[in-house]
Sequence to fold (403 residues):
Amino acid sequence: MRNMTGRPVSEEDFFNREAELADLWRKLETDHILLLAPRRVGKTSLMYKLMAEAPQRPDTYAIYLSVPDIDTELEFVERLYRAVLESPQATSRLSRVWDTLKSSSIGKFFNRIESVNLAELFEIGWREAKPEDWETLGRELIHALRKLESRWLILVDELPVFVLNLIKQDPTAARARTFLYWLRQMRQMPPPEGERLRFLLAGSIGLDTVASRYRMGDTINDLTIKTLGTFSPATADQFLATLGEDYGLDLTPEVRQRICERAEWLIPYYLQLFFSGLLEICSDERAVPSVEMVDEVFEVLLSHGRRSYFDYWHQRLTEELGSPQDEWASALLNACSRDAKGVTRQTFAATLSRHVSDTNQRDETLNWLIDVLIGDGYLVEIEGRYRFRSSLLREFWHRRFAQ
Ligand SMILES: Nc1ncnc2c1ncn2[C@@H]1O[C@H](COP(=O)(O)OP(=O)(O)OP(=O)(O)O)[C@@H](O)[C@H]1O
Ligand SMILES: [Mg+2]
Fold:
């Protein structure tokens, strides 16, 4: 297993998550899923793992697409086609998918299907697609997949970012709503064909938050919500022990325990960060990891040069909430970061009163912001106080924004 601190992990680098995977496969028998988790918890890695496991399941084909960088519905549908075309697992079924598509309105693109390489044909054919064709073209692909006896799992990553891109172009959100309704229609079909295709949607921003902000909750209310959490203390310990073994770095139980204490929130990403810090110190000094060294790494992780580890917590707030709500959320987090024990709702209300004067509106906004900040992994509520879920993030926030 390699020490990875950024990119999604796969194959031997992916650790555990066995219960979560089993649970997801079980749920996917009957439901479409919205996978929610705070940033960096390991959603994309888990989706990669579902892809990797699909071939071991009876007649199951999984395709993955990530869509944060596109602006139009047609590009979304194009990604869908490409994902099917490029999926090594689906290759054996492709000619049948395209046989079905030949008799549909996209058939004209694929009329020489027998003689030409499918991918090349797609490049030629797709140029003729017009922006307004997206609904039909997308529907035809989904229908074609459903007509096959096999089971299909379509994993869509960063969908909320694409939805926000649509909203930027049409702030009334009508366009985003139409798209999400279309996607909802794609999910709804009676058995047996309805049973053959499932969607799993995810993203580094919560689709539920975006949908509620633009009052589009009805477009996703058929999805079953699954959340991805931390490693258990035992799994976190095993994870660190395994990393240590694979790098020949002797992590004693005390050192592993100290890492878990300092990380506090046991997501694999934080454990990987601590491990990489120890690895750096020990290879420089040829030293053996100690408890004091873990504390040293904590400080290093918060230093200026490592800002990119946490900066996205601030950036995504703006993308997710928009202005001025992002500033209000920041103000709450600033207040909260000043006290390791957290703050009460009254403190939050007083902070927000500087931005929202109407009492009713303030109450409603505060409830919503607290929900978002808890759901997104910034805060937890313990005995009536709100505090940062991780002291690492609290310290970062405090030093960077609230001093
Ligand atoms: N199962 C795992 N085993 C080992 N490391 C993991 C695992 N899952 C996640 N990680 C660590 O967490 C980091 C982030 O993982 P990933 O990109 O999958 O998270 P994400 O939830 O998709 O993040 P984002 O919200 O930014 O899209 C990885 O670079 C890796 O360090
Ligand atoms: Mg991701």
Q: What stands out?
A: Residues 43-44, 157, 204 surround magnesium ion (ligand 2) (CB under 6 Å). Residues 268-285 form the longest helix (18 residues). The longest strand covers residues 60-66.
